[in-house]
Design brief:
Blueprint (H helix, E strand, L loop, with lengths): L1 E6 L14 E3 L2 E7 L15 H12 L9 H15 L5 E7 L15 E8 L2 H5 L8 E5 L14 E4 L17 E8 L2 H10 L15 H15 L6 E8 L3 E2 L18 H4 L2 H11 L1
Parallel strand pairs: 1-9, 4-5, 4-7, 5-6
Antiparallel strand pairs: 2-3, 3-8, 7-10, 8-9
GO biological process, one term: methylation
GO molecular function, one term: S-adenosylmethionine-dependent methyltransferase activity
Protein name: Arginine-hydroxylase NDUFAF5, mitochondrial
């Protein structure tokens, strides 16, 4: 099965809960959680950032950019859900590599007071989706953000960091998988181009011959074709989050301050069972 790795929103590993299959024309989305993988080595200067900017600008100029938004919409919604899980509000938030604003549209002004949205592609910022949160659009490369330290209460990013050349090992978490079933390999490639997700590695091949593409499509279809004739592609999503401490959040107790041991906690079920029998 084709695995598209290093699609990196920021958040902690999500719960292992599948969501219903969605009909997206001939594209169908399903979900699951993958098993832990081995750590990826840090790499420098793998990607041509200028080419990635051109790819994203091209995608944003298409007459129907929303046609290819299904994956980014889904991941943006999942990240927003995890923001709501945090018992506090965030006066000032930053979305790194926001695209058309796939996270902000799922949040409300009670949770986020003001949202700075940055992207490397100016055309994406021109097509920002509407949200009730006051927003500021900033044209900036994810590798060179123009903000001082300790500026934001919350920083999020969705499906953007996988094209950044240098990522710390802290991004290595257990992962979420989203499987999309395509009519064929060429439809998958068309959608990746429409998302602005075409390969921009410096060592990419400039041209693939037609016969090579046809042979690859035939082999892929033969090996992985579903019963309905579609072929699956698995997007592997990495999640993590960091946010600034706030006085409204509970602080962890000091080490050694516990008054009950874990051994005693293990007896609670037995005591409750005995209490029910005596009633």
């Amino acid at each position: 099965m084709l695995r598209l790795t290093r699609l990196l929103p920021w958040w902690w590993p999500p719960p292992a809960v599948a969501f219903p299959v969605k009909n997206l024309g001939l594209r169908k989305v399903a979900s699951g959680v993958s098993s832990p993988g081995s750590a990826s080595p840090r790499a420098l200067n793998i990607f041509d950032r200028d080419l990635k900017r051109k790819q994203k600008n091209w995608a944003a100029r298409q007459p129907e950019p929303m046609k290819f938004d299904y994956l980014k919409e889904e991941v943006g919604s999942r990240i927003a859900d995890r923001v709501y899980d945090v018992a506090r509000d965030f006066p000032l938030a930053l979305d790194v590599g926001c695209g058309r604003g796939y996270i902000a549209q799922h949040l409300n002004k009670e949770t986020v007071g003001k949202f700075f949205q940055t992207d490397i592609a100016e055309n994406a910022l021109k097509n920002i989706l509407e949200t009730e949160i006051p927003t500021v659009s900033v044209l900036a490369d994810e590798e060179f953000l123009p903000f001082r330290e300790n500026t934001f209460d919350l920083v999020v990013s969705s499906l953007s960091l996988h094209w950044v050349n240098d990522l710390p090992r802290a991004l290595e978490q257990d992962t979420d998988e989203i499987q999309v079933n395509y009519p064929g390999m060429f439809e998958l490639m068309e959608d990746l181009q429409g998302m602005g997700e075409s390969n921009c590695a410096w060592n990419r091949k400039a041209l693939l011959h037609r016969d090579t593409m046809l042979a690859a499509a035939a082999v892929y279809g033969e090996m992985y074709r579903n019963e309905d004739g579609s072929v699956p592609a698995t997007y592997q999503i990495y999640y993590m989050i960091g946010w600034k401490y706030h006085d409204s959040q509970a602080r962890p107790a000091e080490r050694g301050s516990a008054t009950v041991s874990f051994g005693e906690l293990g007896k609670i079920n037995d005591l409750m069972s005995q209490g029910k029998k005596s009633q």
